[in-house]
Amino acid sequence: MNFDLQKYQAAILELPNFEQLKQIPLQIWETIPSTNQKLWELIEQGEKLPLASLALEQTAGRGQWGRQWLSTQGGLYLSLGIACNLNLKDSFLLTLIIGWGIVTTLRNYNLPILLKWPNDLILMSKKLGGIKLETRSHKDRITQVVIGVGINWTNSVPDIGINLQSYCQNQLAITSLEQLTAITISGIISGYQHYLTVDREQLLKDYFAIFANLGQQVTLNGGTGIITGVTTTGELRVRIKSPGATTEVCLSPGQISLGYEEKT
């Protein structure tokens, strides 16, 4: 499988933030362990940011919390590195809002994608992709961030997954991996700029507009809870009812798994 750089550059020109996108070099790799890992290596070698790295196949791709990410040919495996000066406490909120940027941009192409907390892109209740954000910091400030994104394009997926080809077949408004790459980078930049310019309350309001889990029932410590939202730092808010009392807890990733149902 090949990646046509000229086709990618042409796709950039169709996007509203094309002037910014033209300033981001894209390095393309046939097969590497991880695009995030490759970007950190390039940064350590002195490469300037912003910089994007794309692999046609990953041999050691990882999602959040070290979970394996299957990265066979046909999928989008992309990382974008950005130099920044952000509050270290906001790294998780930044992940959510960059997810918002990607999803909002893809929805412009008639794709009813939603965000499943904390970092999954879902389509028709199945996993379309995911986001992994890694940072480097100095004192209490984030100085560099690498955003890794995987999206199922034409690659095979498990029962809990879906790819864009199977969803739309010949009616898809996105017609190539090169165009999907341009749109995804545009979405990352859109989400990042939104994070920089909008207050937290508005960020959460925008996030809730494409939040898949609002009102979902969950089991926690043997009890039943309802997801009511997300805090300004990105934690999941769950209301738990017990005889004679109602309490609300805030959960970080790792404290609860919202999962997917596999077909049998």
From TrEMBL:
It holds the Pfam family BPL_LplA_LipB. Keywords: Ligase. The keyword Secreted does not apply. Coiled coil: none annotated. InterPro entries: aa-tRNA-synth_II/BPL/LPL, Biotin_CoA_COase_ligase, BPL_LPL_catalytic. One of its GO terms (molecular function) is biotin--[biotin carboxyl-carrier protein] ligase activity. GO terms for cellular component: cytoplasm. Residues 13-196 form the BPL/LPL catalytic domain. This is Biotin/acetyl-CoA-carboxylase ligase. It comes from Stanieria cyanosphaera (strain ATCC 29371 / PCC 7437). The lineage of its organism: Bacteria, Bacillati, Cyanobacteriota, Cyanophyceae, Pleurocapsales.
